[in-house]
Design a protein that fits this description.
By secondary structure, the protein is of the alpha+beta class. 20% of the residues lie in helices and 35% in strands.
Length: 165
């Protein structure tokens, strides 16, 4: 997945009359970059039954425009300042459902979490085996000290015998 360019999204709650008035005014044109466009989009958001993504301030969606479908994973920026300051990763998919088949692991369940990240019981697809998969929160934006601590914890965990429940 590639990191997408920054976009500014304007979400409004207003009456149709107020929206027409806004569209007819010059205020949007004064701040626009390039020509405005209108597109018919169908967007569906996905989460686990217990809202794990939302609780971590993340979202997963599939947006359809015509025959093209794009899956997007969104995560709040490391500074956590606001929902409009976030990172997005996109990939084209072939259906209206998320496609996670290209991932090396299939997550089965969360087995623990803490300040550094989340640990999952997962199936490693390439070897068809159950593993504990530890993820670092905001890995792309972790400091060198965060990564060093994460590696130290992973090394320590890997030196202990594993038991499957």
């Amino acid at each position: 997945m590639g990191v997408t360019p920054t976009e500014t999204e304007l979400k409004l709650v207003c009456t149709p009359a107020a929206l027409r008035k806004l569209m007819d005014s010059s205020i949007l044109d004064a701040h626009a970059v390039g020509e405005p466009t209108t597109a018919a989009l169908r967007t569906t958001y996905f989460d686990t039954e217990d809202d794990r993504l939302a609780r971590r301030r993340m979202s997963l969606r599939v947006r359809r425009e015509g025959q093209r479908r794009v899956q997007t994973l969104k995560a709040v920026a490391a500074d956590g300042a606001s929902l409009d300051s976030r990172y997005e990763w996109e990939v084209e998919v072939g259906a209206d459902e998320p496609d996670l088949s290209g991932t090396p692991y299939r997550l089965i369940e969360e087995i623990g979490h803490g300040g550094m990240g989340v640990v999952y019981r997962a199936r490693q697809r390439s070897l068809n085996r159950i593993v504990a998969l530890k993820t670092i929160l905001s890995a792309q934006f972790a400091t060198p000290e965060d990564v060093q601590r994460f590696r130290a914890e992973a090394t320590a965990a890997g030196s202990r015998p594993c038991r499957q429940p």
